[in-house]
Write a structure and sequence with these properties.
36% of the residues lie in helices and 16% in strands. With 372 residues, the chain is an alpha/beta fold. Helix 6 packs across helix 7 (179-190). The radius of gyration is 21 Å and the shape is globular.
């Protein structure tokens, strides 16, 4: 198969769809890989590194889109990239369509086969193996950026996250105890913060309680516990996820009036529309804004802040799936794997993921129809 990797063009996005070691795996199995010139330069992978791995360097994204049978990216295609996609071409990347109807419509119009990393499920339908590495990184980063923005000169209330002897540490509230929330809690407890995790799944609460063993408060999440916890929090991390669907708006505008002035909120769920009513997507170039005295950090590609770590972690997870697509073609691969089929979001002009279709109020057709 002829595989194309264009340079990422989203604002301050330095990750790359395939690193040289992944390219070598593909080319050693007889596949051809085209890399746009300087696509990996943001994380210190040169064109020569890719050539040594067996890739061909291409000067323009258009040529890659024109020739490739499968496009592998990191972030969702931007508007001009959607226009270059063509009928039957496979797109394998993060899409996060539930919060982006224009992109969904553009993908439908292109006729491409769009497979989203974030809706591929694990064995027996449990877990999201291609989303998890970025959730892990976003969870850990959320505490870093939260601690940084708690500094007074950044607009925060001026509290040191771990405190000092005689002065209490920050109160960190994590909404959601899944992969991102768990890794956020690991970081926050490690820094010495007072951590509360709100969660609704009883099995997950038991796991968190056993793991943290008193180093974090595990509390059942409902409106009452959320309202009380928000009032006390110095840093709030929103880490809720409904696969494929829009994130629920758990913190309302009204709740901000009960919070401390200079408190910080980090919305990890912003790719799916955000879990705070006042959330709006930002970029690394201008990551924060203030609403009612509360600082919001809502960067839609948080792992892009550490592109070397996140590109390597993502490639380790994506490569086995990319190899199967390249070896067997998308129809044969997805027909034989219901969990991989869950990643099919758009095909032949139709939305094929039901939560996405519901979130966007668009017509849905079953993915099974397209691989039968």
């Amino acid at each position: 198969m002829l595989i194309g990797v264009p340079k990422e063009i989203k604002t301050l996005e330095h990750r790359v769809g395939l690193v040289p070691s992944s390219v070598k795996e593909l080319t050693s199995r007889g596949h051809e890989v085209m890399i746009e010139s300087d696509a990996g330069l943001g994380i210190n992978f040169t064109d020569d590194d890719y050539i040594a791995a067996g890739a061909v360097i291409i000067g323009s994204a258009k040529e890659i889109f024109d020739k490739a049978e499968m496009i592998i990216k990191v972030k969702e295609p931007q508007a001009n990239e959607c226009k270059m996609l063509r009928e039957g071409q496979v797109l394998f990347t993060y899409l996060h369509l539930a919060a982006d109807k224009p992109q969904a419509q553009a993908l439908c119009d292109s006729g491409c086969v769009a497979i989203a990393y974030e809706t591929v499920t694990g064995p027996q339908g449990h877990g999201l193996p291609l989303l998890e590495p970025m959730s892990e990184i976003a969870g850990r980063l959320s505490v870093q950026v939260g601690a940084f923005n708690l500094q007074k000169h950044m607009g925060g209330l001026g509290r040191l996250i771990g405190g000092v002897p005689g002065v209490k540490p920050a109160e960190v509230l994590i909404i959601g105890g899944g992969v991102a929330g768990f890794h956020a809690a690991q970081m926050a407890t490690g820094l010495g913060a007072n951590v509360t995790i709100l969660e609704q799944s009883n099995p997950r609460m038991r796991f968190l309680d056993e793991y943290f063993h008193g180093r974090a408060n595990i509390v059942y999440s409902n409106m009452d516990t959320l309202e009380r916890a928000v009032m006390e929090a110095d840093l709030v991390i929103g880490a809720v996820l409904i696969p494929g669907a829009s994130a629920p708006k758990l913190i309302t505008r009204k709740m901000l009036s009960t919070m401390k002035r200079g408190a910080v909120m980090v919305d990890i769920a912003i790719d799916q529309g955000g879990c705070f009513e006042t959330s709006k997507a930002t970029t690394h170039a201008d990551p924060t804004y203030v609403v009612d005295g509360v600082l919001h950090y809502c960067v839609a590609n948080m792992p892009g802040a550490v592109p070397l770590s996140s590109a390597l972690a993502l490639n380790h997870s994506v490569l086995p799936y990319a190899l199967r697509l390249a070896n067997n073609g998308w129809k044969n691969t997805l027909a034989g794997d219901a969990n991989f089929l869950n990643g099919l979001n758009v095909c032949e002009g139709k939305i094929t993921n039901e939560p996405v279709a519901q979130a966007l109020d668009m017509e849905y057709e079953s993915a099974e129809k397209f691989v039968a």
